Amino acid sequence: MQQSQTWTSRLHFILATSGAAIGLGTVWAAPFTIGQNGGGSCFLMYVILTFLVGLPILHVEIMLGSRSRKNILSGIKYICSEERISQNWGLIGYASMLLLICILSFYVIVGGKVLAFLINYILKALFNLSYHPNNMLYDFIMSQCFCLLTLAMCVNSIRQGVERCVKYLMPLLFLSLIGLLLLCHDLSGFRPAITYLFHFDSSYSMIRSMLAAMGLSFFTLATGAGCMMNYGAYLKSSKGIFPINFITAVMIVVAVCLSGILVFTVTFTQGIPPSQGHELVFNAIPFALSKFGSFADISGAVFFFLILLAALTSSISLLEPLLRVSDEQFNIPRLNAGIVCIIILFFTSILYIVSTHEKWGINIFNLVTQTIIEQALPFMALMYLFFGIRSNTSLTDPSAARPLYYYIMITTRFISPLALIVLIGSKLWS
Predict the structure, then answer these.
(1) What is the CATH number of the domain that holds 339?
(2) What is the CA radius of gyration of the chain?
(3) How would you label 200-226 residue by residue, b for 16+ Cβ within 10 Å and e otherwise?
(4) What is the pTM (predicted TM-score) of this model?
């Protein structure tokens, strides 16, 4: 069945693809990943790899979606049939669905934590009450509430759900990041944060920084899991799409830069080590908000509300392809498929939360997060790139300027696959 729904405008497409990434990827994952992997070394590698590797693969995924105009399973099978190549490439679609569920499994935990902070600040602002218990039951309830919010925003069509969500959220999120940074620029940690983020530390492992930066690039660009192939399938035309993809990548890099400066300003002011890990943002931000004095609780409620919206834009992009496949491929209504996903996330949430609180000796949440960002996403991105090349999908616009034409050709055919093979190989070898 040919896909009939399309984006209302290319602006909505830019906002949706940016919203898929400018969520917990930039606000939560980017600061702790950069902090754990050499600071400026990781960030500079992230910027370079985003435009040499991440952006080309983002373009490949979107072009694959635009060519098929179907869900990720049907789309890959359709292209295989059209080009008369092995249907085994269809395994990429099934692997993408599994990866989407895995990413959602840890996304809802972080989203639930954001929701818990929001509720706490609202209670403090309105009733002068503080309720933020650190126990498994509360964390689990918050994660399931976040699941329900995501499902509620995904059960409708692309125009009623995703477009309506990102139309206002994305500009508001950007303005909030800029506003918070302006309010924090006079903190003592501002200059050290700038130095830390833009200083290249040659003493740190180059391979380690590059591998972490590449995984972060795919995570923030939302590539490697089929999200962008799914969004590309809603495009009316792929003509002139690369400049739009370039704008999306620039927006994401700017958002990572803003959130990095903001978080590291607070951490250096408070004396928190940047390499603290997944809790970095949640330990840093309350300290920054306390500087607002009597307005701290109101500021906290507003800030975490915006972070919650950012998290939802990302979780929507993860759940939407799954619901679309179930509806178009298996004739399962979107709501029913969403309920099945929530049941799966119900059990994964229990596993993550219990392993974190009970100190099993291995933190499953950290293990899954690191494995997906540093290994699974780069590997799947490589598979999408190979499939794009093997299927003779047109990755260039003949009307594009010659330098742009050569940029796309060189990066997609040579630089991106070579970089991915080298870095993935170095990880496996180590």
Answers:
(1) 1.20.1740.10
(2) 21
(3) eeeeeeeebbbbbbbbbbbbbbbbbbb
(4) 0.85
- In the chain, what is the greatest distance between 2 CA atoms, to the nearest angstrom? 67
DSSP-derived secondary structure for 343-361: HHHHHHHHHHHHHHHHT-S
Q: Tokens 């400066």 correspond to what residue?
A: 261
- Calpha distance 428→430 (Å, rounded): 5
Task: Express as a percent the part of the chain with pLDDT over 70.
Answer: 85
pLDDT in tens, 135-192: 888 889 999 999 998 888 777 655 555 556 666 666 677 777 787 788 778 878 889 9
Query: What Å distances lie between residue 384 and 31, 64, 255, 360, 414, CA to CA?
Result: 27, 9, 26, 36, 14
329 falls within a domain:
yes
Angle, helices 10-21 vs 241-270, to 10°: value is 30
Residue 243 region by backbone torsions, left for phi larger than 0, else alpha for psi between -120 and 50, else beta: alpha
The one-character DSSP state at 84 is T
Report the Cα–Cα distance between both ends of the chain, in Å, rounded: 46
In a domain, 5, yes or no: no
Residue 179, in any domain of the structure: yes
Residue 313 identity = T
Nearest to 185 by CA among 79, 264, 301, 70: 264
202 Cβ contact partners less than 8 Å away, ≥ 6 residues apart: 41
